[in-house]
Specification:
The complex is a heterotrimer.
Chain A: H1 2-8, H2 15-45, H3 51-55, E1 59-62, E2 71-76, E3 79-85, H4 88-96, E4 119-123, E5 146-150, E6 155-158, E7 163-165, E8 177-179, E9 184-187
Antiparallel strand pairs in A: 1-9, 2-3, 3-4, 5-6, 6-7, 8-9
Chain B: H1 2-31, H2 37-41, H3 61-73, H4 96-104, E1 107-111, E2 118-122, H5 153-162, H6 169-174, E3 185-186, E4 194-195, H7 217-232, H8 236-265
Helix pairs in contact in B: 3-7, 5-7
Chain C: H1 14-22, H2 25-33, E1 38-40, H3 49-68, H4 78-87, H5 92-120, H6 128-150, H7 155-166, H8 175-183, H9 190-218, E2 237-239, H10 240-265, H11 295-303, H12 313-326, H13 331-334, H14 346-366, H15 374-399, H16 409-414, H17 416-425
Antiparallel strand pairs in C: 1-2
Helix pairs in contact in C: 3-5, 3-9, 4-5, 5-6, 5-10, 6-7, 6-9, 11-12, 11-14, 11-15, 14-15
The chains are: A alpha+beta, B mainly alpha, C mainly alpha.
């Protein structure tokens, strides 16, 4: 900037004068840059989840009515979540599997809370391409491993909601949750 | 040629205007300037100073909580604040548990996400204040935006709440036909002077403030006005703070840019 | 641009040389706002508003695009989605207030730009095309601003839409059909709101296109200047970069301070409270007015209260309102004075100042209730408005004796002795 200005002026006064000038011009351009970047921030930030969306980022579910062997579908962050009360034989079936043979090796204990091993809480979103697997509702197909079955591309999950067969790469995801009492679980 | 057309067109429009003007002036000279009861007796809002005024204005959270108490105890029986969510109340200084309790005390019509059925349930922090079913005739306005939806803003709300009075005898003498109709109430701060809402704040101690402030009518009117400034503009504090930083930065940058401009033009005489 | 002493773009970096061969975009920019555009050295601060208007257009397009990510163009949700932006969207309040006040800022800047043109005769040959394109931009801006004001679907939005589309029903024979067609119904509703949103999104890009033509047309004769004397020699001009980049640059700072003061500390000062009341087709507000930038034209519309000859008052008002702007298209041919700048036109200068006051009075009346004395004042002011453009400008330009002009821009800036010395050196 100052360089171009200098070409138009016959004899720049002294070396020091030129340096002071350059400094002010550079400072002014830098300030304009800072201002420009500052205005970018709200323009980018507005695309992040808004306050009403964030307010629904955790869900409390009453689980007192779920009998052993039953499951319910709840909603967490606008997506289905499966809450399943496992029967003792389902727990047993899950624990008998040799973990090392699994595609995504995890034990049932790692996927549940200590002392609450009968409560299997997972996202109802198939890890293959995002369909909702069957098996949580009364009378739905549970697949050959007694867990969940995704009809889109035939992924089969066992009673710990681990992937056993089909194209899905991972077990059904376990969201963050905690029991706020014996009958209420807070997801998220 | 074009200028002749233009002059003719100009004279045509001017003549039409002059004709309208002539008849208008005749009318005014016959009837005089309009003199209505609203022009003569409508009053501008009283002065009201709130902590949220001015460049550095911030909300007085204690006052907002008191105003919320007044709203809940008095206004909420007829007026909704549907744009406000319970979670927003944390800005008033309530903690999460208190907000949950306030929400749970209300019944909202929730949509079951699995079946789509609408059924009543206790409110959650993420819900908005529910609509208010008003039993009488008329249509009490939603109050969420009231301080932005009326000339005078909070001062108008405050003046209206404290402005009920007997219709002045002077008014009836000047405008014998303007007697306040039955079922309406005289209030010089209301646009047409006669408002359907009876005075809502009538006696000291109508609300028992949890912070021990004496609940005079004036105090309650001030507090609820302050609360309604917040419901209309919950981002006011952030707006003021951001504005101060940003304008401060702009002043600095503009001075630099001015100096740079002077530098660059230094050799060009006359500027 | 076309001056022989203008510097040519000479890329030095091999990449820029390659780029110049394939797509000479840097060359275009250099010639448009770079060292290649030679500008009269004596421009005063009234010449800064063009650049600022461009900045306003950018502000409106950028904030508008992000607002459209959150807004719902449906009468059921339009008002609530606007409040959602104000309350829940991150920085939504700033974007929305920035867009609303940005519209006002845009009009402030453009009005200053237009009146600069009136005063300094910027519309005269050889710059007629720049002026015509400018009037087109102004008309597009008015349409865009009107449709944007409808989108929040408040009371003023609804009744503004009702009244302004009602203007078209004044047209004889086809008016009512046209009105219904414009709204896609018999009153403003979903159909109208949706098409207004679509057009409100489209038109700013049309404006941008016409702005590019406006600047292109400007670069053919080059900028005018306060003396109105054409550029004669190299000493009359300085290159746009760095001189006018620096001058425009620091006034951007001033503009941003004023704009931000409104945005952050009085964001609703220029709006109307009734637009915070959701639209209600059953009840008209007591006192409906458009946004402030339409007030002068609204006052002209309302001034025709009586049928005239065979023309009904309603049609007369609509005709006059459109004529009051369309006359600007003819200005280059109505004003025959060979002298551009009002600085050297003593008679025209007086009328110019009367016009400025007249438009302010019209604006004041347009924003006031439709009752006396405002209607009478507006009628008198409207009479002057029409006389000014249609009658006074053509007549004054023929009979006026202008003051002597300076020989050159350099002489006007430096005085005749130094100018002579410089010219001798050149």
């Amino acid at each position: 900037m100052a360089h171009d200005a200098g070409t138009d002026t016959p004899a720049a006064a002294s070396g020091e004068g030129v340096r002071r000038r350059d400094f002010i011009n550079i400072a002014a351009v830098s300030a304009a840059g800072v201002g420009g970047i500052a205005t970018l921030y709200p323009l980018i930030s507005q695309m992040a989840p808004s306050a009403d969306v964030l307010a629904e980022s955790s869900t409390e579910v009453d689980i007192s009515a779920i009998q052993p062997g039953q499951a319910i579908k709840a909603v967490f962050r606008k997506q289905p979540v499966f809450i399943r009360n496992l029967k003792p034989e389902e727990i047993k079936a899950a624990e008998e599997v040799d973990v090392t043979t699994l595609r995504d090796p995890q034990t049932l204990k790692e996927r549940t809370k200590a002392g609450k091993e009968n409560w299997l809480i997972t996202m109802g979103v198939c890890t293959h391409l995002g369909c909702v697997p069957l098996g949580s509702g009364e009378g739905e197909v549970k697949g050959e491993f007694g867990g969940y079955f995704c009809p889109c591309h035939g992924s089969v999950y066992d009673t710990a909601a681990r992937i056993r067969k089909g194209p899905a790469p991972k077990n059904l995801q376990v969201p963050d949750y905690e029991f706020t009492s014996d009958t209420v679980v807070k997801i998220g | 040629m074009i200028r002749i057309f233009s002059i003719l067109a100009g004279l045509f429009f001017s003549a039409a205007l002059a004709w309208s003007l002539l008849l208008g002036v005749i009318n005014v000279s016959k009837d005089g300037l309009p003199h209505t009861v609203e022009k003569a007796f409508h009053e501008h809002p009283k002065e009201l100073h709130l902590a949220s005024d001015g460049f550095f204005g911030k909300f007085d959270k204690q006052q907002l909580q008191r105003g919320f108490q007044v709203y809940s105890k008095v206004c909420a029986s007829c007026h909704a604040i549907k744009h406000v969510a319970f979670r927003d109340l944390e800005a008033l200084g309530y903690n999460e548990a208190e907000v949950k309790a306030i929400a749970a005390a209300q019944t909202v019509a929730g949509k079951d996400p699995l079946t789509g059925a609408i059924k009543d349930r206790p409110g959650l922090a993420s819900d908005h204040f529910p609509p208010v079913v008003y039993a009488g005739t008329g249509n009490p306005p939603d109050l969420s935006l009231i301080t932005k939806a009326r000339h005078g803003g909070a001062a108008y709300v405050y003046s209206l709440l404290t402005g009920y009075e007997e219709q002045p005898a002077k008014l009836l003498k000047q405008f014998p036909d303007a007697k306040t109709p039955d079922g309406l109430h005289y209030n010089p701060y209301f646009a047409n002077l006669n408002i359907a809402m009876p005075a809502p704040l009538t006696s000291e101690g109508q609300v028992t403030y949890s912070d021990g402030t004496k609940a005079t009518v004036d105090q309650m009117a001030k507090d609820v006005s302050a609360f309604l400034v917040w419901t209309a503009e919950p981002k006011l504090e952030k707006r003021h703070q951001t504005g101060l930083w940003w304008i401060g930065f702009l002043l600095f940058a503009t001075v630099l840019a001015y100096m740079s401009y002077r530098n660059i033009w230094a050799e060009k005489k006359g500027h | 641009m076309s001056f022989p002493w203008a510097k040519e773009y000479k890329p030095s970096h091999p990449f820029m040389v390659w780029m110049d061969e394939k797509l000479p975009l840097p060359r275009l920019v250099y010639g448009a706002v770079g060292g290649g555009y030679e500008v009269p050295r004596n421009l005063n601060y009234m010449w800064n508003f063009g650049f600022l208007a461009g900045l306003c257009l950018v502000i409106q397009i950028v904030t508008g695009i992000v607002l459209a990510m959150h807004y719902g163009a449906n009468t059921q949700v339009a008002f609530d989605s606007t409040e959602h932006i104000m309350r829940d969207v991150n920085w939504g309040w700033m974007l929305r207030y920035g867009h609303a006040n940005g519209a006002s800022a845009f009009f402030v800047v453009v009005y200053a730009h237009i009146f600069r043109g009136f005063y300094y005769g910027s519309y005269k040959a050889p710059r007629e095309m720049i002026w015509l394109l400018g009037v087109v931009i102004f008309l597009l801006m008015m349409a865009t601003a009107f449709m944007g004001y409808v989108l929040p679907w408040g009371q003023m939005s609804f009744w503004g839409a009702q009244v302004i589309t009602g203007l078209f029903s004044a047209i004889p024979i086809v008016g009512d059909g046209l009105h219904t067609w414009l709204l896609g119904g018999f009153a403003p509703d979903n159909a109208a709101l949706n098409r207004f949103f679509s057009l409100h999104f489209l038109l700013p890009f049309v404006i941008l296109g016409v702005v590019i033509l406006h600047v292109w047309a400007l670069h053919i004769p080059g900028s005018s200047n306060p003396t109105g004397v054409e550029v004669k020699s190299e000493s009359d001009t300085v290159p746009f970069f760095p001189y006018f980049v620096a001058k425009d640059g620091w006034t951007i700072g001033l503009f941003m301070i004023a704009y931000s003061a409104f945005l952050f500390f009085m964001p609703n000062a220029l709006g109307h409270p009734d637009n915070y009341i959701p639209a209600n087709p059953m009840q008209t507000p007591a006192h409906i007015v458009p946004e402030w930038y339409f007030w002068p034209f609204y006052a002209i519309l309302r001034s025709f209260t009586q049928d005239f000859l065979i023309v009904p008052a309603k049609l007369m008002g609509v005709l006059a309102m459109f004529a009051s702007i369309l006359v600007w298209f003819f200005l280059p041919w109505l004003d025959k004075s060979p002298v551009r700048s009002a600085k050297f036109r003593p008679l025209y200068r007086r009328f110019f100042w009367v016009l400025l006051v007249d438009v302010l009075v019209l604006g004041y009346c347009g924003g006031s209730p439709a009752e006396e004395p405002y209607v009478i004042i507006a009628q008198i002011a409207s009479i002057y408005y029409f006389l000014h453009f249609f009658v006074i400008v053509p007549i004054v330009s023929s009979i006026e004796r202008p003051d002597p002009l300076p020989f050159s821009i350099t002489e006007a800036v430096l005085g005749s002795d130094e100018a002579a010395a410089l010219e001798a050196k050149a």
